[in-house]
């Protein structure tokens, strides 16, 4: 059976059961649980150091009221990093290449930040829709533009994450196909292409980490604007 180029992004099904649920559950099993010992092992110490540095960098410019979101954003960051990096392994599925899943993450969190802004600072939240000093004839047009840009934010979050991961996976697949094709025809060119494939894989690992960080960073900026 010949597989298409985009078949790697389809959700796998086993006995009629979608395995995306298993893929979403797996990351939480991989991380070690804290212990009651006075001294943790190196893996737990590294995990704690990463979490503390991440929360300090993300929530330092945010109002103290927004620090309640630290646990949620940190868990989302670890979750996205794990899904993105595990999807680079052979014969695996990357759930974050599905736009529906990314929108399920982006839309509720964005809506929560907007509702918080309208609840605690309604005047400030509505003031974003009309910049100060706008000429009277442009007021209706600017309100429409700012409202559209506000509602585009969750779509931009989901599409940005999906597009970057999908493009990287496709590029790796095309390059690996070229390596297998040239292996017996032009071994020297195949070797050079395999080096390019290794560099693309390292680049994709970096993209997987950066995209997860940017996703959470933009959500924190939306929270900061509404607080």
From TrEMBL:
Q: How does it assemble?
A: Component of the ATP synthase complex composed at least of ATP5F1A/subunit alpha, ATP5F1B/subunit beta, ATP5MC1/subunit c (homooctomer), MT-ATP6/subunit a, MT-ATP8/subunit 8, ATP5ME/subunit e, ATP5MF/subunit f, ATP5MG/subunit g, ATP5MK/subunit k, ATP5MJ/subunit j, ATP5F1C/subunit gamma, ATP5F1D/subunit delta, ATP5F1E/subunit epsilon, ATP5PF/subunit F6, ATP5PB/subunit b, ATP5PD/subunit d, ATP5PO/subunit OSCP.
GO molecular function of the protein, one example?
Answer: proton-transporting ATP synthase activity, rotational mechanism
Protein name per its UniProtKB record: ATP synthase subunit a
Q: Which InterPro entries match?
A: ATP_synth_F0_asu, ATP_synth_F0_asu_AS, ATP_synth_F0_asu_bact/mt, F0_ATP_A_sf
Can you cite an annotated GO cellular component? Answer: mitochondrial inner membrane
Write out the similarity annotation: Belongs to the ATPase A chain family.
* Lineage of producing organism: Eukaryota, Metazoa, Chordata, Craniata, Vertebrata
Coiled coil ranges (UniProt) are none
Instruction: Specify the species.
Output: Glossolepis incisus
Which reactions is this enzyme annotated as catalysing? H(+)(in) = H(+)(out)
Q: Where is this gene product found?
A: Mitochondrion inner membrane
State which residue ranges cross the membrane. 12-31, 69-89, 101-118, 138-159, 171-199, 205-223
Task: Identify the gene encoding this protein.
Answer: ATP6
Give the membrane topology.
Multi-pass membrane protein
Keyword terms, alphabetized: ATP synthesis, CF(0), Hydrogen ion transport, Ion transport, Membrane, Mitochondrion, Mitochondrion inner membrane, Transmembrane, Transmembrane helix, Transport
Origin superkingdom = Eukaryota
């Amino acid at each position: 059976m010949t597989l298409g180029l985009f078949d790697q992004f389809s959700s796998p099904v086993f006995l009629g059961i979608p395995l995306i649920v298993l893929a979403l559950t797996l990351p939480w099993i991989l991380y070690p649980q804290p212990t009651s010992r006075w001294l943790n092992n190196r893996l737990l110490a590294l995990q704690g150091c990463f979490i503390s540095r991440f929360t300090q960098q993300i929530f330092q410019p945010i109002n103290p009221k927004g620090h309640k979101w630290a646990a949620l954003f940190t868990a989302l960051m670890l979750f996205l990093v794990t899904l993105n990096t595990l999807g680079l392994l052979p014969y695996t599925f990357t759930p974050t290449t599905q736009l529906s899943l990314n929108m399920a993450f982006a839309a509720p969190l964005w809506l929560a930040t907007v509702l918080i802004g309208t609840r605690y600072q309604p005047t400030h939240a509505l003031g974003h829709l009309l910049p100060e000093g706008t000429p009277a004839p442009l007021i209706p047009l600017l309100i429409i533009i700012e409202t559209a840009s506000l509602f585009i934010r969750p779509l931009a979050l989901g599409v940005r994450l999906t597009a970057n991961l999908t493009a990287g996976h496709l590029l790796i697949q095309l390059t690996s196909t070229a390596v297998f094709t040239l292996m017996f025809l032009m071994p020297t060119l195949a070797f050079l292409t395999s080096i390019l494939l290794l560099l693309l894989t390292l680049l994709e690992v970096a993209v997987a980490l950066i995209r997860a960080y940017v996703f959470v960073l933009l959500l924190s900026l939306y929270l900061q604007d509404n607080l």
